[in-house]
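so my prof wants the structure for this chain in the tokens format not the other one, which i didnt know existed until like an hour ago. anyway here's the sequence
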Amino acid sequence: MSPTIITDATDDRVRDFTSLTDVDLRKVREPAEGLFLAEGEKVIRRAYEAGYLPRSALMTDRWYSSIGDIVEASGCQSFIAPDATVEAITGYRVHRGALMSFERKTLSRSEDLIAHARRIVILEDLVDHTNVGAIFRNAAALGVDAVLVTPSCADPLYRRSIKVSMATVFAVPWTRIDPWPDALNMVKSAGFTCLSMTPDPSAASIHDVNRDQRIAVLLGTEGAGLSDAAFDACDVRVRIPMSGGVDSLNVSAASAITFFALAER
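here's what i got, hopefully its the right format
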């Protein structure tokens, strides 16, 4: 199928791409409608190679050659529009030239996802998509086998999360853990030692954790950290030793240090 030319920003055929700057709207719409957005050739290609099914593509004409093979192989609808029309549809200037909407996959059960894992991370109620994306990138780079996110955690497949993760959200297995925090009993029954990360100076040092065991690292929401219920359900409270009068780090920075310290050698 040849791409369809779009000149009307209100054309319902490009509804997948409308109002992308309205975060509150998109983070509700996308999971409800079973879609997510990938921006730029590299991210689009990684999503496609990870087995996600394309729904439709929107781009300016000069970008068709970069993802035309995916459009043709998948048979998805594709739309070409002038720069001004693309900007009117999305709400911003699309610097990477191409957008593609994909069907979400059915999420795995938590039990199945962690069955053969050695290192997992659980994100409790993180609300910043940038932090979620950065943690996925750290997880992919530093040997984490799976990510579990609580029901109120930001969406790993939101466009900002995907972008910051450098598309590693497609490489690290993840799912939502529910009910929370009761589902931690399942994690512990599977043989994981649950570590709650905290800046509390009385907590055990990350250097003293036994790395020969299966480990689940719990990271809490920005600012407040982990909930009391999560702390109470964990086996060990763990801190990153710091100096210079600094008592805590950004959660994504803390995750990188933690994953590296706990990596199996």
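also thought this was worth mentioning. The radius of gyration is 20 Å.
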